[in-house]
């Protein structure tokens, strides 16, 4: 999967061929990627595959999940000049995209780490980039939520509009979905959260609730269904996530890890 993605990314940039390579023969060359801001490395696995395909030797001075500072060298490359310059933009774009997501994700993780709460990503990813972007959140310290509709059965507010009896639906679902698949119910109110637990779901998502409302759901869960996991989601930001972590919820999910990540600054320099 990574190889196919990398090949397609490179082909998008090269098109029918690099016009630079038409002018002069290739010469031995070396280059390095220099950080021009602070961040967290992500994208190493993808760059390694591209370099192997294109005959470029790469040495990493910083690896996936490691912090880097402005001015530090992240990786060094050796190959002929045509190969390095042909791959320059694709290498940088993959590292920039992934590292930017990882950098923002770690900011969230650092805030909630003292509370022992898991940080989850969501399915709010760019089309055809889900695996890549969720890999980036892992590099930043998050735990992946489901990759797709086949991972677990999640009943959102839109689904609930089609279900007359939630308990009967869940009982029937247990007979047809995989044994290892969990059932999660999205609840926008305390009442829906209660009904979801009584219907024997595995996880309740407290969606768009205030921290005080989440605490109310937690108290009910702890007294009646201590085995059920609780997830908080909706309007989670760097400013609000700590207030949710303090509630004692099991996990917090946020789409902003991906769609609010601003690109950091990396540059390739030829030696």
TrEMBL record:
The keyword Flavoprotein does not apply. It holds the Pfam family QRPTase_N. This is nicotinate-nucleotide diphosphorylase (carboxylating). Pathway: Cofactor biosynthesis; NAD(+) biosynthesis; nicotinate D-ribonucleotide from quinolinate: step 1/1. One of its GO terms (biological process) is quinolinate catabolic process. GO terms for cellular component: cytoplasm. NCBIfam families: nadC. It comes from the Bacteria. Residues 23-99 form the Quinolinate phosphoribosyl transferase N-terminal domain. GO terms for molecular function: nicotinate-nucleotide diphosphorylase (carboxylating) activity. Its EC number is 2.4.2.19. Involved in the catabolism of quinolinic acid (QA). Residues 101-269 form the Quinolinate phosphoribosyl transferase C-terminal domain. It comes from Sulfurimonas paralvinellae. It is an enzyme of class 2 (transferase). Keywords: Glycosyltransferase, Pyridine nucleotide biosynthesis, Transferase. SUPFAM superfamilies: Nicotinate/Quinolinate PRTase C-terminal domain-like (SSF51690), Nicotinate/Quinolinate PRTase N-terminal domain-like (SSF54675). The keyword Transferase applies. Belongs to the NadC/ModD family.
